[in-house]
From TrEMBL:
Protein name: F-box domain-containing protein
Length: 467
């Protein structure tokens, strides 16, 4: 097909799937593609690193010169700009980026990350002046950066990861102003390492902070003792919630219609008590739980459950029997835990086979079991022992799935070193088998490489609620 016959939407769809180098190669295929690709798509999504490496410096300077050249309209094409600033950056290059930003009138998304005090004021001021900005992402912003951005408004998403700084939400702080300006437009909010001294909810006042449109909330906050935290009041429309509250709350107010939850066991209990029936839950528990205590909090609505036990526990083998009874619609199940003592090879095989036997009652598409162990301390010895244990356990595990759970599309069993974090695993995925002519096609689980298995695991473990 001639490039002249390709409409804008078709080229845009192709361009969205290509990297910058791929776009450049496409642009060089002919003059027509060059005229379309370079001004419209090549600069649509730009990533810049401000550092002292020559290759990065050359790219930054070349890009900025092309934006600022007389008569250039290349800046009109920039929709997303990702700037990473290192300690060793050149102030001259930072000024160039700031000047170039002033010639990007249609910027929709700005991502800026630095190390401690490396945020460049001219760059931040240029971002603050963007009138079409809809998405703002800041990693490790110092207070001065937020002060320059506090008057931005009309944003659809804000992500701020503090780490080195604790940004308070009390009155007259830059973060409070920034969030307040987007009260009626904000749909996605992610705040890490913030202090939450917001006042108690007030009724019928213009000063009461409520974000009625936020559907995705990712909140890591420290809450002073005695401060009421009513997330249901501040974020009434939340459907997807990732919560890490300190200290762990038990009586906080939670939104009542959460469909996807990520967080600690205490937060999960609060969400369920508030009336939510999550379809997806990724739960971390630092304390051992009895089978009844754990399963009693599961809801029949659950379609995907990932549970991580971070402390050493004696996991009741009948725990999964209760899971199957309480959450009969599970499609995705992944569990990681660390036994109080390290089982021997025969025990591993029995534990894994017995656990799988309970879960075969479910309409599972993905099953993962992950065990962390402490011995042997030596990593090569651990990997050797882990491979032997997995080989012994694999036969019974796959046999249970094959005989009793034909709906499973992918599965894994993993052993991790509790101290080093590294581990080994066995992975299976369902593939069509070669069949003689005239027979009906069938599929069966085949063992796959770690790379393929981890890709499958990532896809299923990030699954939300679409069956």
């Amino acid at each position: 097909m001639s490039p002249l016959l390709l409409n804008y939407d078709t080229i845009a769809a192709i361009a969205s799937e290509l990297s910058m180098s791929g776009l450049l190669n496409l642009a060089l295929t002919c003059r027509t593609m060059r005229r379309v690709i370079i001004p419209e798509f090549l600069y649509a999504k730009i990533s810049l690193s401000l550092c002292n490496e020559a290759t990065h410096q050359e790219f930054v300077r070349s890009f900025c010169r092309s934006i600022m050249a007389d008569g250039s309209t290349a800046g009109n094409a920039v929709r997303s700009l990702d700037i990473y600033i290192l300690h060793s950056y050149s102030r001259e290059d930072a000024n160039l980026v700031g000047q170039a930003l002033e010639k990007m009138p249609y910027l929709h998304r700005a991502i800026c990350s630095g190390v401690l005090d490396t945020y460049e004021p001219r760059i931040i001021r240029a971002i603050a002046a963007q009138v079409h900005l809809r998405h703002l992402v800041l990693f490790y912003p110092p207070p001065d950066a937020l002060a320059l951005l506090k008057d931005l408004g009309g944003l659809a998403s804000i992500k701020i990861d503090g780490v080195f700084y604790h940004h308070p939400l009390s009155s007259d702080t830059p973060l409070r102003h920034l969030l307040s300006n987007s009260r009626h437009t904000l749909e996605e909010l992610s705040l890490r390492e913030v202090e939450w001294p917001l006042p108690s909810p007030q009724s019928n006042t213009t000063n009461d902070l409520v974000w009625p449109a936020v559907r995705t909330l990712d909140l890591g906050a420290s809450v002073p003792e005695g401060v009421a935290l009513d997330l249901a009041h501040y974020f009434p429309s939340t459907r997807v919630a990732s919560l890490r509250m300190y200290p762990h709350p038990s009586e906080y107010g939670y939104p009542t219609r959460i469909e996807s939850f990520t967080g600690g066991w205490e937060e999960y209990i609060g969400v369920v008590k508030a009336g939510s029936n999550p379809l997806f839950a990724h739960i971390t528990s630092q304390h051992p739980l009895t089978s009844i205590e754990f399963a009693s909090r599961l809801t029949p609505s659950l379609q995907s459950l990932i549970i991580m036990f971070t402390s050493g526990i004696e996991l009741p083998l009948n725990l999964l029997e209760y899971v199957a009874e309480r959450a009969p619609s599970l499609h995705i199940f992944y569990m990681a835990w660390r036994p109080k003592r390290t089982p021997d090879s025969n025990e591993y095989a029995k534990i894994i086979a017995q656990m799988a036997s309970y879960l075969v009652r479910l309409p599972l598409r993905y099953l993962g079991l992950d065990i962390a162990i402490r011995y042997p301390f030596n990593l090569p010895e651990f990997k050797s022992a882990a491979h032997a244990n997995l080989n012994m356990a694999a036969g019974g595990f796959v046999r249970q799935i094959r005989d009793k759970c034909p709906s499973i599309e992918a599965a894994c069993i993993r052993l991790r070193h509790a101290r080093h974090g590294s581990g080994v695993g066995k992975y299976w995925t369902r593939r069509a088998r070669a069949i003689p002519h005239g027979e009906m096609p069938t599929q069966h689980l085949v063992e796959v490489s770690e790379e393929i298995g981890c890709a499958d695991a990532a896809a299923y473990e990030s699954y939300r609620w679409k069956a």
